[in-house]
Amino acid sequence: MSARPKKSFGQHFLHERRYIERIVSAISPRPDDFLVEIGPGEGALTFPLLAAAGKLTAIELDTDLIPNLQANAEGIGELSIVHADVLKVDFTALAERQGVARLRIAGNLPYYISSPILFHCVEHAAAIGDMHFMLQKEVVDRMAAEPGSKVYGRLSVMLQLACRVEPLFNVPPGAFRPPPKVDSAVVRLIPLAPEARHDADPDRVHQIVKAAFAQRRKTLGNALRQHLDADAIRRADIDPKARAETLSPEDFVRLAKIEIAP
Question: What residues bind S-adenosyl-L-methionine, as annotated (predicted)?
Answer without folding.
Answer: 12, 14, 39, 60, 85, 108
